[in-house]
Design brief:
2 copies of one chain form a homodimer.
Chain A: E1 2-6, H1 10-21, E2 25-30, H2 33-38, H3 50-55, E3 61-64, H4 65-71, E4 74-77, H5 81-89, H6 92-95, E5 99-102, H7 135-142, E6 147-151, H8 157-160, E7 172-177, H9 180-193, E8 197-200, H10 207-224, E9 231-235
Parallel strand pairs in A: 1-2, 1-4, 2-3, 4-5, 5-6, 7-8
Antiparallel strand pairs in A: 6-7
Helix pairs in contact in A: 5-7
C-alpha cells in the first residue's frame, strides 16, 4: 500500500522504517525537502539529521507535505502539534477523501511561558487546545473532506510500531474518529504493527482525553526514569 | 486508626465501609449533618440517601466537616471538586499538620455550558482548573499546614477500595505529593486495600495529569459500557 508519513522527527521515522519493513511504499512529507536534507545538526530532541537517516533507508522517498499526501492512499500525521493545522490545511486538496491518522500532541510552543516544575525536559507539558477542544477535532474542522482518526498518541511511537517490545505486547491502543471505515484502516495498520488490544473510544471528541493523557504519560515517564518504554493496559 | 472521610457520596461510602471493615474508627464529615440525615431522595447520581445507608453501618459517626477533620488522624477528601477548596478551607485549623488524601476531580459545575457530545451522563467532562494548575495544588495552596496527597483519582472508588475485583488486582494506582511521609501513609492505606502496584508520580504537580485523565477514564468507560469496572496498568 502507498502510505504517506508527514513529518521527519523521531516518531515519524519509527513509522517510516516499520512501514517499509512491512512492505509498504512510503512517501515522506516535509515542509521543504531541500532544507530538510541540507540540515547536518541534530534537532532539539537530539534526533540526528534526516538526510543521513534517509541514506540508510533506500526506497523511502522525500517530498513536500502536499506531494507526499497526494501519493499516499493512507496518511499518517507526524507534524508537530503547533504546526499541524496550518501545514495540513495547505495540503487539504491532496488529503481530500483520504484517511489521516493523527498522533500529534498540541504542546503549547511558547518559549516565554513560565513553567513551575523543571522536568528532565526543562518544561511541564502545557496543551493548547485542551479540555473543550482537541487538535484532532481542529484538524477535522480544517479538513472536512478528510477522515481524521486519532490514534497512536498515548505511547512513544517506537512502541506503537513495535508493541511487543514491552510486556509481551499486553497493553492497549486507542482509536477515535467519526468514520468507521477510516477507524478500520487504522485498526488494520495497528494489527499489522502487532497490536492485539485496540479499543475504539468512539467519536473524535475522545481525542481530548487521548491528548490530555500527555500529562499522565509524562509523569509516568519521569517516575520510571527517562528513556524507559512503557504502555498502559485497560484492565477489565 | 482514626480516619476522617469528608463527603457522603458513593465514592466516600466505598471508603467508609471498607475502612470500617479494616477495623478503623471512621468519622464522616458533611456540611450539615442534620440536613444530610433529613434527605430521603436519591442524589443526582442515583445514590440512595445517606441516612438509610448509615443505619446499616453501625459505629460510623457523622459530623460536620470540621468536627470530622478534628477527629481524624488521617483525612480523605471526597467532597465534590467544585466545592472542595471552600469546604476544606473552612476546616483549615482542624486539618493542620495532617495528611489529606484528595481524590476529587475538578469537574466544572455550570448547568449553562453547552456540551458538544451528549454522553450517557448527558455531558462531556470539563475541568477547571486544568493543564496549568490542578485541584490538588489549589487545595495545597489553600491549606499550607496540611500535607496533601493526590491519589485514588484514576479509578472508581469502588475498585480503589477493592482492587482485586478487576483483573485479579493487576493494575496500577498513582500517588503524588510533596511530603514523603504523607505519601507513605497513602501508600500504606492502598496496600491495606489490596494494591500491589503503586507508582509514586513525584510532586503534587502530577495531580494535573491524574485529574486530566478523567477525560480518558470517561471515554474508556463509555467504550466498555456504562457500569463496567476497569483499571489501568502501567506495562513496563
Amino acid at each position: 500500500m502507498k502510505i504517506a508519513v508527514l513529518g521527519t522527527g523521531g516518531g515519524a521515522r519509527a513509522h517510516i522504517a516499520r512501514l517499509a519493513e512491512l512492505g509498504h511504499e512510503v512517501h515522506v512529507g516535509t515542509r521543504d525537502p531541500e532544507a530538510t536534507l541540507a540540515r547536518t545538526d541534530p534537532d532539539m530532541m537530539g534526533t540526528p539529521p534526516f538526510g543521513s537517516w534517509l541514506a540508510e533507508h533506500p526506497g523511502v522517498e522525500l517530498h513536500t507535505f502536499a506531494d507526499a499526501a497526494a501519493r499516499g492512499e493512507l496518511v499518517i500525521n507526524g507534524i508537530d502539534g503547533h504546526n499541524a493545522v496550518a501545514a495540513l490545511s495547505a495540503a487539504a486538496d491532496q488529503l481530500a477523501g483520504k484517511t489521516l491518522i493523527d498522533y500529534a500532541v498540541p504542546f503549547l510552543y511558547n518559549p516565554d511561558i513560565e513553567h513551575p516544575w523543571p522536568t528532565p525536559w526543562g518544561v511541564m507539558p502545557t496543551l493548547d487546545p485542551c479540555d473543550r477542544d482537541s487538535l484532532g477535532e481542529q484538524i477535522q474542522r480544517a479538513l472536512p473532506r478528510t477522515k481524521v482518526v486519532k490514534a497512536f498518541v498515548t505511547q512513544e511511537q517506537d512502541t506503537v510500531v513495535d508493541p511487543k517490545a514491552i510486556g509481551g505486547g499486553d497493553h492497549t491502543m486507542f482509536v477515535a474518529g467519526t468514520d468507521p471505515g477510516a477507524k478500520q484502516q487504522a485498526t488494520d495498520l495497528l494489527k499489522a504493527y502487532g497490536w492485539n488490544d485496540i479499543l475504539d473510544l468512539g467519536p473524535l471528541v475522545a481525542a481530548r482525553g487521548m491528548e490530555m493523557y500527555a500529562h499522565m504519560h509524562s509523569a509516568i515517564g519521569f517516575a520510571l526514569g527517562f528513556g524507559t518504554h512503557f504502555g498502559i493496559k485497560v484492565v477489565r
